[in-house]
Amino acid sequence: MPPTISATDHPLEKLTGDAVVVAVGKGPDGPLPTPGAEAVDRLLGGRLFPALADLGARGAQDEVTRLPSFGQGPFPVVAVVGLGAPEPSGGYLPESLRRAAGAASRALRGRRSVVSLLAAVGGTPDAERLHAVGEGALLGAYEFTAYKSQLPADRLTPPSEFTIVVPGAGAAEAALRRVRAVADAVALVRDLVNTPPNDLFPAELAARGAAAGEKLGLTAEILDEDALAAGGYGGILAVGGGSTRKPRLLRLSYTGPGARKKIALVGKGITFDSGGISIKPSAKMEDMKSDMAGAAAVIATVCLVAQLGLAVEVTATVPMAENLPSGSAYRPADVVTFRNGKKAEITNTDAEGRIVLADAIARAAEDAPDVLLETSTLTGAQTVALGGRTAGVMGSDELRDAVIVAARRSGEAMWPMPLPPELRKGMDSTVADFVNATADRLGGMLVGGHFLAEFVPSGLPWAHIDIAGPSYNTGAPWGYTPKGGTGVPVRTLLATIEDLIAD
User: How many CB atoms are located within 10 Å of the residue 42 CB?
Assistant: First the structure.
């Protein structure tokens, strides 16, 4: 069961729980106090800050110091989490609170109920702080145990109950319902990404996505290999041709009350990517189960939009295939014909994401949307350019920049990238309209964006979010981000949609 979350405005001394969470900032001479930490310090008779100094706490991001209360308060454990250095204004960004709440949730495994004073930290409006603390607490408590055959009886589990102390708790309950919906959507993406590919092949991913949508009243359509052939989806069929588990295309549609704007979502669903004939090195190939993170994100996003009842029309078009080498696999030198009639010469079967996305973008554009948002684990070059935590965003300048603004508010790191025209010239083919990959490694992320641009009709605002790194954490957990699937970029997609319909 997912953890519960609620708000209270009761005085600290009247609250009970297995732990209380407070925060400190990082100052030049040691931890900087916050209102919540000062309240607990008073409750403990002035012992908190001297204890932190003795333990060497610095207030750095992701630093969590746990102390016993020795019976001086209603909580047996005090968790003091670092916020990092404050902003020049003296406050802290919502993302600092989100990370702090997540780090505390991870550090408090074995504690059932947690009271959080993090929303008392100043620097941003009350609503933004509440959302950040709530999201961080719930996302930090995520775990994936579906494939553990036996869990130890003495296993320390994440907290199952969070109470956030805020002024005006009654008004906060509506905000926390949204927090709960967002956390559930992110958890859905993480679960799908973490599921092994022998259990999450194209037909299964399509079925799970359709079931999630239909539960919320969405219209679902699944095209099998016969329907894909009849519909001219040559790219999806080519990539999926090497596997005995055939490709699919899922369409999920939602129309909210009073909808005036139509938004297309597209996400790459390669349920496993061996590279095909252009096979990848064996090292870390197991991480390629995450190559459907974009598909999972747009499925979860359209479901989240429906759950929140937003006044917008959204359709997710999700191509799904398994890229494997076999006698029926597509080959370098093949020419693929896409749904819109364009043709690509295949020079690298490991550049398969853009091949399935081409068909999906062409189909999504047929609905005449006002904007098109696409996300995918498209290129390894994204991680070379921006590292493992920052996504690259390309597309129409105005929409690209709107995505960046939404990402900054959501706490998902993204950076705007150009589409230099000289990189498009390298895609020219002597036998087809263009090649799917170039031999030049320079600007690989941007070349992928150029390929997708070939399938976006003139005049349609669009944005491509390359999440090759940030969608799957191969390192240690940090903040509210676990090892494995992260759920990026659901929160940015939601924020972008909300900004678009607010205009």
Answer: 13
